[in-house]
Amino acid sequence: MPDAALAAPAPGIVDGFAGAVGNTPLIRLRKASEATGCEILGKAEFMNPGGSVKDRAALGIIEAAERAGKLTPGKPSIIVEGTAGNTGIGITLAANARGYRSVIVVPETQSREKLDFLRMIGADLRLVAPKPYADPGNYVHVSRRLAEELGAVHANQFDNLANAAAHEATTGPEIWAQTEGRVDAFTCSCGTGGTLAGIARALKARKGDVRIVLADPLGSALYNWVKTGTVKASEGNSITEGIGQAARVPGNLEGALIDDAEMVPDAEALEQVFSLQMEEGISVGGSAGLNVAAAIRVARKLGPGHRVVTILSDGAARYQSKLFNPEFLRGKGLPVPPWLA
């Protein structure tokens, strides 16, 4: 008979992958706060077990499929997802923990580090050429067809509302509790839109006038969608991965409680990536840098004395071959930090 002491985790001990997702720290970002006279806080989502904010969506999607009877823990099943990488990592780890197989479809242009990590953790990785959403060869469409062919569950992170629901149930309430309800604005970038939409619902249910601002890279259409209601891509492009939408509004963003939007160029985002790393010891990726840059803009518009929260989406190590590669940066006309030059 098993020891009764092992039947349930003791206080402070969590149960496996699922128990380790969430409850991440909220970090005061010193430089950004000093520059604005506000308190700017970053939710340290890079501290999730799979290394990114997408662990929450991945777990939420799998648990929703289990509740619907599409998956049964321990029973061999396949989950298919099309992803820029991080959701695929979360899906694969959550699937491993529950006895499922994962097939992950990724554009071949994503960072080498993410692709290597997916292979390392046992994903059946399928690389495809980068195609616009209107093309049937787009990774999202390929993943849907593959799920149908395999008789598998399609995670469908962009339009599966379990994504936003996971953030409404966890991330938003965590931010509210950690700030003791003293939050004036929240901003983050969107790929699927689940993080922003879910957190917005959770915060606005508790404080109706909290300001929700979508952060967007160049080349995406979401900024114009918020500002004008038109889904039209902005000029330019971005080296950030997994954020922005050039031609559509994902299901998770439809009806989202958004007050405003900020468009942030790569150079501005990279300035925050490099500053956080070298001046505050916080190593994050490009989307986190864009989020912090957007939070600074929001804080300046609000004026001193306010509190703005954003998401530190993942760590810098996933982008070493790009964000910290002088050759790559110069080729994109982007600044190279002095310690790499």
UniProtKB/TrEMBL annotation:
What PROSITE patterns does the annotation carry? CYS_SYNTHASE
- Leader sequence residues: none
List where this protein forms a coiled coil.
none
What's a Pfam family in this record? PALP
Does Metal-binding appear among the keywords?
A: no
Cofactor(s) needed by this chain: pyridoxal 5'-phosphate
The residue ranges of the Tryptophan synthase beta chain-like PALP domain are 20-314
What keywords are assigned to this protein? Pyridoxal phosphate
Give the highest taxon in the source lineage: Bacteria
Full protein name? Cysteine synthase A
